[in-house]
């Protein structure tokens, strides 16, 4: 099953929003192939009817009342300042609807 | 005169109480030591000159300290400044702890040798041609070299226990949900935990007393009462049932490591423990399970690092280009590899074959441990199959992954585990530390601390 092609790598990189050079594509095609071959050893195990484990605490649906409560003691503006591009209280981004 | 290299939290509290030294003098002594040693080891990424007086502690640069940089060892967060204190940092400060600085780590905590750090590897204090181990590389090195009395690291698959075993320190991985993760930069959220690094087991118990417990800001923390971990230490281990998994002594285990672990087990027996061999049949599959679940969760967690809200931003003509360039220039190679694998295994058509399959095997791994803990108190074995490797010794990604072979189980099953020094091996005439791992059932930290302390004081 884990036959990773160069086209697969290009497709995954696009989904993951990572730009790869031609060299990196070649290298990753090999590396991802061998990692996926390694993890595919799980197919040796019969897991028919086994429930998946997503977390181990046993906690379920931890609720709090639906009321806003302050937890951050600092200046909320500092959070905006952390953005590489910002203007006043807004985070700046490139146009979303531009181009294609 | 105080020796910063051998001083422990316990002794420091004693001499502070007797007023033999002031908290300011204590902090200054460790800052001085940090400035002397750090240029050789590259363990601290930043040192806080104005650290207040108190018990000197270093914090992995994955945990937020207000007003200070929090790089996650990555170029993508190189200039990010934390806007609040992590809950664990707040708790430590409230109990007389002084944060001396932030420590080095593999990029985004992904790695087993520390070599993936964007800021260069941390060297092993025992041999400067070898790595300290990862991902909490700086945290173990500062403790081993006496540059802090203790440190906070973190664990996803062994990132505190493994490097602790390579540097002769104590690495403690608490049960999932025992310590708040509010302010810990996430990697794989179903596994991550904050993990103390100390010189002694007694100190690990003291740190746990300071930081364990429920936090309203982390809904995965448990409401279970926190015991006094220091009180458990003095009980003897007569009659305690110790399980030794036969799978932990299979091929690939270094012969010197094997000899040291077997000797430690004999010593536990001499202390009155009942040792018996058990089987954990899923051992061989734990690593493969881990390396499906982790990249999947990584690919989701790291989606937030996109050059918009914080961190490194590259210029681009449009939004997509900003995302793509920021992420490929900001993330290191291993991080990119894991994001790619996670994206693949979670993508349409592959989810059942990889992620769901791994979650099902995770259930079987949990069952293995449930079975053993039915009639055993703790499980012991090696922390790592080998001693600290040389810089550059590991080459292939899978070689790095294999170092985690004995540690990932505790994370997958949500157990607690500790690595304690159990002697030395020798490579090329240099003595290198070996670590004994003791694992306990969920929320049985007191029991593994008790066994570790009995072993340490033998």
Query: What is the SS-derived class of chain B?
Result: alpha/beta
CATH homology superfamily name of the domain at 6-43 in chain A = Glu-tRNAGln amidotransferase C subunit, N-terminal domain
Q: What's the helix count of chain A? A: 3
Q: Average pLDDT of chain B, to the nearest integer?
A: 96
- Determine the fraction of residues in helical runs of chain B and give it as a percent range: 25-40%
Report the CATH architecture of the domain at 6-43 in chain A: Orthogonal Bundle
Structural class of chain A: mainly alpha
CATH class division of the domain at 9-211 in chain B: Alpha Beta
Radius of gyration of chain A: 23 Å
Descriptive notes:
The complex is a heterodimer of chains A (100) and B (458). Chain A has 100 residues and is mainly alpha-helical. Chain A has a domain at 6-43: Histone, subunit A, CATH 1.10.20.60. Chain A has helices spanning 6-15, 22-39, 76-81, and strands spanning 86-87, 90-91. A two-stranded antiparallel sheet of chain A has the order 1-2. In chain A, α1 packs across α2 (22-39). The longest helix of chain A is centred in the first third of the chain and has 18 residues, at 22-39. The two termini of chain A are 35 Å apart. The mean pLDDT of chain A is 90. With 458 residues, chain B is α/β, with parallel strands linked by helices. Chain B has a domain at 9-211: Amidase signature (AS) enzymes. Helices cover 38% and strands 17% of the residues of chain B. Chain B has 15 helices and 13 strands. In chain B, a hairpin with a 2-residue loop joins β4 and β5. Classes of the chains: A mainly alpha (100), B alpha/beta (458). The interface between A and B is large, with 55 and 69 residues.
